């Protein structure tokens, strides 16, 4: 054999050796990756226990939030359970107020006492159910959050500008919720 052939054979042997080493490295890398994946796929007992604890805690917290939310909704429902009936009785209370004004003009004391007793009984019964009057007086500053302005009129004095001149209709609250806003006239 010639030198050229010897060199070619050596190169070929080196190439085969390098290729064999590369294949061996690739196989080893693949084996290492497979082992790593197997390790990842098989969590330890501690990891499984921790995952179950986390799952349990989340479920427990979610249930506690549900209980709080439903109890809060139930309390609100009980507070405003008779809202429809109370709202429908508000015009009757207004009629009693207007009637008392006219009955006082008649001068019949016995009639005034009798109607006043009935009115007080109705108002006290509604108060026991949680109804309260929204206090608005003449000269108070107008508050759009708790009052409804019916109209504006020129203020009789400079001090009454932007303030309540007259209360047309009383307002009421049931618990903390305003069920009817007081209707007022404000000074311009």
TrEMBL record:
This is Protein GrpE. One of its GO terms (molecular function) is adenyl-nucleotide exchange factor activity. It is found in: Cytoplasm. Belongs to the GrpE family. Residues 1-46 are annotated as: Disordered. GO terms for biological process: protein folding. Gene3D superfamilies: 3.90.20.20, Head domain of nucleotide exchange factor GrpE. Homodimer. Participates actively in the response to hyperosmotic and heat shock by preventing the aggregation of stress-denatured proteins, in association with DnaK and GrpE. It is the nucleotide exchange factor for DnaK and may function as a thermosensor. Unfolded proteins bind initially to DnaJ; upon interaction with the DnaJ-bound protein, DnaK hydrolyzes its bound ATP, resulting in the formation of a stable complex. GrpE releases ADP from DnaK; ATP binding to DnaK triggers the release of the substrate protein, thus completing the reaction cycle. Keywords: Chaperone, Cytoplasm, Stress response. Residues 1-19, 32-46 have a biased composition (Basic and acidic residues). Residues 22-31 have a biased composition (Acidic residues). GO terms for cellular component: cytoplasm. It comes from Wenyingzhuangia marina.
């Amino acid at each position: 054999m010639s030198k050229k052939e010897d060199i070619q054979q050596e190169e070929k042997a080196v190439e085969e050796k390098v290729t064999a080493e590369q294949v061996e490295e690739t196989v080893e890398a693949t084996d290492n990756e497979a082992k790593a994946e197997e390790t990842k796929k098989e969590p330890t007992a501690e990891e499984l226990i921790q995952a179950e604890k986390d799952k349990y805690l989340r479920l427990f917290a979610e249930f506690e939030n549900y209980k709080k939310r439903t109890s809060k909704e139930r309390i609100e429902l009980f507070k405003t359970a008779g809202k429809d009936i109370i709202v429908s009785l508000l015009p009757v209370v207004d009629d009693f107020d207007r009637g008392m004004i006219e009955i006082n003009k008649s001068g019949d004391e016995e009639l005034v006492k009798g109607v006043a007793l009935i009115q007080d009984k109705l108002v006290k019964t509604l108060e026991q159910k949680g109804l309260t009057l929204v206090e608005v007086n003449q000269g108070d500053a107008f508050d759009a959050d708790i009052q409804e302005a019916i109209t504006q009129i020129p203020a009789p004095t400079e001090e009454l500008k932007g303030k309540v001149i007259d209360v047309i209709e009383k307002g009421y609250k049931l618990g903390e919720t305003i069920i009817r806003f007081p209707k007022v006239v404000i000074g311009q």
